[in-house]
Automatic annotation (TrEMBL), chains A, B:
The chain crosses the membrane at residues 153-175. Residues 10-70 form the HTH tetR-type domain. PROSITE patterns: HTH_TETR_1, HTH_TETR_2. Residues 33-52 bind DNA. The keyword Membrane applies. GO terms for molecular function: DNA binding. This is Transcriptional regulator, TetR family. It comes from Malonomonas rubra DSM 5091. Keywords: DNA-binding, Membrane, Transmembrane, Transmembrane helix.
Length: 199, 199
DNA sequence: TTAAAATCTCGAATGCGGTCGAGTTTAGCA
DNA sequence: TGCTAAACTCGACCGCATTCGAGATTTTAA
């Protein structure tokens, strides 16, 4: 009868995530209590903590799964973007749409990513993926002669990544309302980045 | 006897900030409770909320107060001599040094302000202060002919601000060790920003 | 088969941020 | 000076995340 407990655990774990995701999208992260989640999942409140070490971890686990989806979309999608500016915009808008599919999703993800209390290995892995992807974009732009060669790709990637963060912060801070607003903002940022701001 | 209340209020306010800063440096933001602060400040817990609307506001206010002096000095100094790149670097390094005076302090501050759980008016005010300052830097750079005119100063400010965030994230993520490393990173970012990255 | 060890469960307890409202102090004016 | 309105103070309270601990269930090994 080995594995009975394992199997139950997997079911309970899934029940918690399902309940949490459902409640989070209905009521939002803040308004959803652990007790709500436990009740919907059909378990006791304290039992949740056998599976997740904190409320936010439930959400990050879900985020993690979702991001896998975003990356696979990126990998399969044939890029129609021709120049660097378009490529950057396309890349980040795919990420943006994914991350803000549910508003809370993006916010918590950003909180966990930007100045984490504890390092989260899964998220670090994701960031590395972003950076690798970006470095490839820059490498090919350099090959096409669109940008100067001999630049540190790491700093270029970090630069555009930070602009993406700024766009997201604007979205969550109430400065931009729609995805279109965000796209316009990003477009301006990338123009500045590529062309510089001199006369 | 006019101003008696005003004076007391100012004293209490200062007592709260002092207590908070002291406790925070010792125990960290999370571990310091409002009650601790109230006790050290010699007042009741609820009274803290007459002066500050939330725990983070105490720290934001402290930062605003401390940085105000540094910046007004900077404002008068900066009009002469240096160019945009240097001015930006100077501005952000003052902020960086202040914020990382105590390492934990900086991390907590960033956590509290980057993707807040709920919109916070005081936080908006706080950020607006820095943006206004940056806009002035850009305005005078435009007047000197250093950068193209007709650009949206708001986007320029947001751009450099996001680079500062990236540098800080790098510092807390373990990518740069010393203040000097951070300054070098920022310098590279600002060069990219000003000059663009084309061949 | 069985009994000890390991693990899981969950109601109860803890601690904290934040609010309430009754009591107190001050300001302003007659 | 006396009186009222406005503003301040703080103990008590609320809701919620997280931890405790004691009892239930499952695994392991002989």
């Amino acid at each position: 009868m080995a594995g009975l407990r394992e199997q139950k655990k997997a079911e309970t774990r899934k029940a918690i995530i399902d309940a949490a995701v459902q409640l989070f999208s209905n009521k939002g992260f803040e308004k959803t209590s652990i007790e709500d989640i436990a009740t919907v999942a059909g378990i006791g409140k304290a039992t949740v903590y056998t599976y997740f070490s904190a409320k936010v971890d439930i959400f990050l686990t879900y985020c993690d799964d979702e991001l896998e989806g975003a990356f696979s979309e990126l990998a399969t999608k044939q890029s129609r973007a021709s120049d660097l500016h378009e490529q950057l915009l396309e890349f980040f808008m795919i990420m943006f749409r994914f991350v803000t599919r549910d508003r809370e999703f993006g916010r918590q993800l950003m909180r966990a990513t930007s100045f984490p209390e504890e390092a989260n290995p899964a998220l670090k892995e994701h960031n590395k993926y972003y950076f690798d992807f970006l470095e490839n974009i820059f490498r090919s732009a350099a090959q096409r002669g669109e940008i100067a060669t001999g630049q540190d790709y790491y700093y270029l990637s970090a630069h555009v990544f930070s602009l993406y963060f700024a766009a997201l912060a604007g979205f969550y801070g109430g400065y931009s309302e729609t995805a279109e607003d965000v796209e316009n903002g990003l477009s301006i940022f990338f123009r500045q980045f590529i062309d510089g701001i001199k006369p």
